[in-house]
Amino acid sequence: TQLLEQSPQFLSIQEGENLTVYCNSSSVFSSLQWYRQEPGEGPVLLVTVVTGGEVKKLKRLTFQFGDARKDSSLHITAAQPGDTGLYLCAGGASNTGKLIFGQGTTLQVKP
Amino acid sequence: DAGVTQSPTHLIKTRGQQVTLRCSPKSGHDTVSWYQQALGQGPQFIFQYYEEEERQRGNFPDRFSGHQFPNYSSELNVNALLLGDSALYLCASSLYADRWEKLFFGSGTQLSVL
User: Fold this and answer.
1) Partners of residue B91 on adjacent β-strands
2) Tens digits of residue pLDDT in B57-81
3) Could you say which of A48, A88, A99 has the minimum Cβ distance to residue B45?
4) Closest approach of chain A CAs to the CA of B25, in angstroms?
5) SS3 assignment, position A81
């Protein structure tokens, strides 16, 4: 069974601080995705990382895929209150259309 | 281009009742998947419909059933509701059943079971 574990589960920081969220698995994934979700809304895709060791940047967000394709991280530089939300990592189950999600990291950025 | 639309947005039911949730996929998509998301948790896969048939199913009891119509829209039915069924139910659509990389999610239906 493929599982994804995220840490930390909850993060409360001040505006301007940096943070890193981790997503780990004992299984290899062909690729991993990161989503951001606001209360009462569906997840919105931020990025897909495909190649082991790959680094992608989206403004102040940096995403990295582990060399062994078993883990990923999301780093936010100079967090802003608008970054507040639930961050989810997700990977596809082998040869299926099923998406496996981590339990999520709730980020609160205080002004 | 309309995205994934779900109805209703909110629903309150009592234990033992039955509920039907509806989903219209993004234009051009032929596959619909349903996910259950408890508060503060990641979504969990319920099942996927493609060509009007259930193609895959997650670890959910038979009380959860679904249907896909010829226009690719879908329904999720839950019978004999339990308090633990309270959650946000998300519909996601894609083109082709195995394309998990290209899922588009709706805003969900918030179900409260009292």
Assistant:
1) B34
2) 999 999 999 999 999 999 999 999 9
3) A99
4) 14
5) helix
Chain A nearest CA to B5, separation (Å) = 11
For B12-66, write each residue's pLDDT tens digit: 999 999 999 999 999 989 999 999 999 888 999 999 999 999 998 999 999 999 9
Query: Strands (DSSP E) along A1-111, which ranges?
Result: 5-7, 10-14, 19-24, 32-37, 44-49, 55-58, 61-65, 71-76, 85-92, 99-101, 105-110
Q: Whose structure tokens read 């582990």? A: A66
From the list B35, B42, B47, the residue with the least C-alpha distance to B6 is B35
Say yes or no for a CB contact (<8 Å) between B92 and A99: yes
User: Do strands A85-92 and A32-37 pair parallel, antiparallel, or not at all (unpaired)?
Assistant: antiparallel
On whether any CB of chain B is under 8 Å from the CB of A39, the answer is: no
Q: Tokens for A106?
A: 């709730």
Nearest by Cα to A85 from A53, A56, A60, A108? A108
